[in-house]
Write a structure and sequence with these properties.
Strand order of the largest sheet: 1-3-2
Helix content: 40-55%
Largest sheet: 3 strands, antiparallel
Number of helices: 4
Shape: globular
Strand content: 5-15%
Order of helices and strands: HEHHEEH
Radius of gyration: 15 Å
Amino acid sequence: MGVAINRNDQIDTSMMLILRYKRPVVALKDIVEDYMPHLDMAAAKQRAAKCKLPFPAFKVDGNKSEYFVNLTDVAVWLDTLQKESRLNWSEVN
């Protein structure tokens, strides 16, 4: 199985996340620990329940199971933040 390469010969964010976590769907806690350290899990779960995270989260096995996220959705969020940051930076520089 090859690695997805974009037109600029760079691995895209989604594929990098999948390579990092070695699966396409991960527990919400993994993303919170790595990309949202300011947020505790109780707050993250509340946001997930109210659909207030910047990406969708879902439960696989009923209300008592943990939340999961698709890394493609996380990649879209990270790419959006990066594009906004680049735009702001280019306006200053």
